[in-house]
Each structure stands twice: as C-alpha cells, then as structure tokens.
Amino acid sequence: MLKFSYKKMFKKMIDLEMTNAKLMEKANISNTTFYKIKNGENVTTDTLLRICNVLGCDISEIVECVEEDKC
Asked: What is the pTM of this model?
C-alpha cells in the first residue's frame, strides 16, 4: 500500500534554512495540520499549494508516494 511522504519538504526547508514555525506562519498552517504532515498523514491540496508557494517549488519537490512499512 502506498502513502505520502513529506521528507522532501523537510529537506527543502533545511536547504532554505526555514524553521517549522516560519513555514507555518507564512503558509498559514495550523499546528494540527503541521502535526499531520510530520506524521505522514493526508492534508488538503490547498495546504500543499500554500507550502509550494512559500518554498517556491513544485509539489513533486515536497511530497512523494512511498510504500507503507509492513510490521
């Protein structure tokens, strides 16, 4: 089963020296939504678009589909 991974987003933030708090402020993202992103949960495409605008990138640069770990 596939799931979303936002690891690319966090790598991009490091490259841009942007903190979690600064991204949340600039993209108008709530703590709850950011928690979902950190835990690989689904968020709206509107949220992803706002993040892309802040980071100056395409969606493929912040999210990817990966195989879900099997326990």
From this structure: 0.88
